[in-house]
Predict the structure of Conjugative transposon protein TraJ.
Amino acid sequence: MGEFDNLHQILLSLYEEMMPLCSDMAGVAKGLAGLGALFYVAVRVWQSLARAEAIDVYPLLRPFAIGLCILFFPTIVLGTMNSVLGVIVQGTHSILEEQTFDMEKYREQKDRLEYEAMMRNPETAYLASDEEFDRQIDELGWSPSDMITMTGMYMDRAAYNIKKSVRDWFRELLELMFAAAALVIDTLRTFFLVVLSILGPVAFAFSVWDGFHSTLSAWFSRYIQIYLWLPVSDLFSTILAKIQILMLQNDIEAMQADPNFSVEASNGVYIVFLVIGIVGYFTIPTVAGWIIQAGGGVGSYNKNIGTAGALGGSLAGAAAGNVAGRTGKFIRKQAGRLLKR
């Protein structure tokens, strides 16, 4: 869906547009870090003097190194991390694009074979082609048996069109939900990265103070973990695309070997995989947490997002069953109306 690709690009542009705001927070962070550095150095120098020990200069350089990072935060910190992590994103995205291209190629081949198989069979050719339907109708006369045959053809074609329309509508709905789930993950990722980037200098400044030293490592781990949501999402989409390619290849081989092969079962399996994909997208934060561990709020979010994923899967499964049941009733109802006419 091209419109969703545009939204992903907008989120990427939003992140880049918000980066200059880091400089606005650098002034506050420099004051906070400078005050923290003063107390940090003073306490350690006083302790060494009180114990009549030599002053160890190396640990005292920590506040100054953090101060340099705050002073050049967009370039040194964000620029370096985004450059390194961007290589991972580009690598996984190239894999996804390759698999998606192959999937579209096999899908077009399968649709063409399905159409050709229906056209080869005189009993189903009129369902797939308007020209063939009109030709068979014109060949019929006005005898009672021809009228019955004509009525049956109209009913079969109407039932086929209704079934196909409902199936395509349900598939498009699930594809929309699948793309929306990816967009939700990307939107939350962008929001978290923007917040971490803008308030990053403040987090660095707090890490100068005693008792807040773990803030620095926590910020790095959270930023990396959330940044990895995108490559993990691309890998998950790549796996789903590869599964669909294997399914399409099996269907194509079966259709080439057996002209009477039915693709109805494979269409149902495709819908099931869409539901799996919708639920699976909400497990991406948890999987990213396995790569690099981050505590605090992100850990709580992973638990909440997992609950949301389970709820989404339940709703999607309920919707699939509901639509399938109503589809059968609707087709029988429409067929009954046509028969009465």
Observations:
- Residues 2-22+72-340 form one domain.
- Residues 308-321, 334-341 have pLDDT under 50 and may be disordered.
